[in-house]
Amino acid sequence: MKKAGLFFLAWIAFAATAQQDTSQQDLDRLESAIDALQRELGQHRGKHDALQAQLRKSEVAIGKVNTRIRHNSAKQRSLKKELAGLRDRQRQLEQNRNKQQVLIAAQLRSAYQLGQQKTLKVLLNQEDPALISRAMTYVDYFNRARMAEIEQFNNTITELRELTPGIQAKSNELNQTGQALEEEKRKLARQRQARQQTLASLSRTIDDKNARLQQSVKDRAGLETLLNTVEDVAATFASIDDAQPFASRKGKMKWPASGRIANRFGARRQQGGLRWQGVEIRADEGNKVNAIHHGRVVFADWLGGQGLLIIIDHGDGYMSLYGHNQSLLRETGDWIRSGETIATVGESGGRNRPGLYFEIRHKGVARNPAGWCGS
Question: In whole angstroms, what is the distance from residue 97 CA to residue 94 CA?
């Protein structure tokens, strides 16, 4: 555990240094290449491609709204926890205040009774100097203890007064966050409705098997072109020499999402001669999608057939891609730790059920994920 912690810290330090050292020109070049490719792929012709553009707009908007909902939900949980802590402290202080009031009242009564006995006369009537000394020490101790209790009581009252505005402020912030969260959920409902209308229109434009096959071939060609583009540019990036190599973790990495594998790598797909270049993981919408290994995001955007897609470069020619996401939590150029949450499971790309499409590639060739990820 200690060794893993040290490796983690070393990786963080390395990533920060590497991110600073990597030329901004590399990222600019990557983004320029992606933008050019997106424009090329976005040359819309015909009703179907116009609907694809509408689908992209809806799904990108849904992804952004879901990200804001996730952020507001996390903030709401944090605020509730802080508020609960403040109220616990308030209750504790009130209990302390009540106890201190009782103790001070008792001490004041004792002081009054001691005064009534004419303490000085009692002390002067003593014949034993040792008894006089002890009595004086007792009186002094009693007075100091009483002053300490009064000071502690004043501190408790002061903290209670300072705590009250903080509790009110947190309550107001929590209410505002709750209202923002509800508004985002209403936006999400509207965007989902727009998406469903677009999907219905799309299904009417692809009314036969041949049309579906042509679209699948076109989508796969777009993905291959994108992968080749980012692979070429990423090959010039600074290598991650000090981090654990991707190849050394073969068979030891975790699957990116919890769920059931719905297809066999390399098997023929329903659409004609296409074969599975990766695997589809059936999972609940909104579930976490985690990076299988550390690396750098080289693509985080919407792509036809894949929906919201994120691609990570792991160095040495290895890449992993994660498609059909509900929302993307990281951006192009971000450094990623192994196991870090990068997206959430969705059904973008025109799908009608949630799941994650997952691929591993090495120097442009798709690899069977089952050989790399444990059960």
Answer: 5
CA separation for the pair 109, 312 (Å, rounded): 75
**pTM above the 0.85 mark?**
no
Bridge partners (DSSP) listed for residue 301: 309
| Angle of CA points 38, 40, 224, to nearest 5° | 70
Give the Å distances, CA to CA, from 82 to 79, 160, 175, 177, 357: 5, 16, 14, 14, 38
Q: If you ran DSSP here, which 8-state letter would residue 307 be given?
A: E
- Return the SS3 of 357: strand
Nearest Cα neighbor of 293 from 357, 235, 250 is 250
Residue spans of beta strands (DSSP E) within 129-278 = 260-261
Burial class from Cβ neighbours inside 10 Å (0-12, 13-18, 19+) for residue 40 reads exposed
Residues 162 and 309 in one domain: no
CA–CA separation, 12 and 313 (whole Å):
17
Domain that holds residue 194: 46-205
Whether residues 264 and 181 fall in one domain? no
Q: Which residues pair with 346 in a beta bridge?
A: 355
Residue 207, SS3?
A: coil
* pLDDT digits 0-9 by tens, 275-334: 788 899 999 999 999 999 999 998 998 888 888 999 999 988 899 999 999 899 998 889
d(Cα 339, Cα 342) in Å, to the nearest integer? 9
The whole-angstrom separation of Cα 198 and Cα 201 is: 5
Length of the chain: 375
